[in-house]
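Fill in residues.
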């Protein structure tokens, strides 16, 4: 069990938990899956979900403070994928929150034909992603191979970060999506937008198959 967050961290912790519960209520964190983090005010550490907790009932006491070098600053065991969150925070000081969920759409689309990227064009929801001003542009979401070694996975992600930075996210094949933003609200908007786009794309392919 982790300790309650400090008074300084309480607003961030409450906001991150509310965000996680919202996604869990929509079926995007099955079987305690998914992980969520937010950069603390000192910028040298984050709050991240503890390992194995139910995101549908997540409370601030189930968040751990972790330094960017991976040192756990509280009591408990951080999510197994904390290292990937930390690699993103270290790479880009503008990242304020990182959200990771599992959906049928993001999992299946990352595996169908083993794509290295998914391309979206013509969807109004593309404007949910920061920097996208209309539906006419070509929005690319990178897809990387899964790896249980978080250091190796982080190195793979680093190779696609120019594209991922524009998309504010990437897919891990057969696993799920990571999305981020300057704060929790921006990260949530990006993740909601991507999940809508991925759902549309999966349904489009299904309809074309049966046409």
């Amino acid at each position: 069990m982790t300790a309650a967050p400090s008074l300084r961290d309480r607003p961030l912790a409450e906001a991150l938990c509310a965000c996680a519960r919202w996604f869990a209520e929509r079926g995007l964190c099955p079987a305690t899956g998914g992980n969520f983090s937010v950069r603390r005010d000192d910028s040298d550490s984050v709050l991240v979900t503890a390992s194995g907790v139910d995101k549908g009932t997540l409370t601030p006491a189930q968040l751990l403070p972790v330094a960017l070098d991976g040192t756990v600053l509280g009591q408990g065991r951080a999510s197994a994928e904390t290292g990937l969150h930390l690699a993103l925070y270290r790479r880009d000081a503008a990242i304020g929150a990182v959200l990771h969920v599992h959906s049928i759409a993001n999992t299946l689309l990352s595996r169908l034909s083993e794509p290295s990227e998914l391309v979206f064009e013509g969807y109004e929801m593309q404007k949910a992603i920061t920097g996208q001003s209309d539906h006419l542009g070509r929005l690319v979401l990178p897809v990387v191979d899964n790896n249980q070694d978080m250091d190796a996975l982080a190195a793979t992600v680093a190779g696609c970060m120019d594209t991922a930075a524009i998309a504010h996210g990437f897919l891990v094949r057969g696993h799920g999506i990571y999305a981020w933003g300057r704060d929790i609200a921006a990260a949530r908007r990006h993740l909601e937008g991507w999940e809508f786009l991925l759902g549309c794309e999966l349904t489009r392919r299904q309809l074309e198959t049966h046409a």
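The chain has six helices and eight strands.
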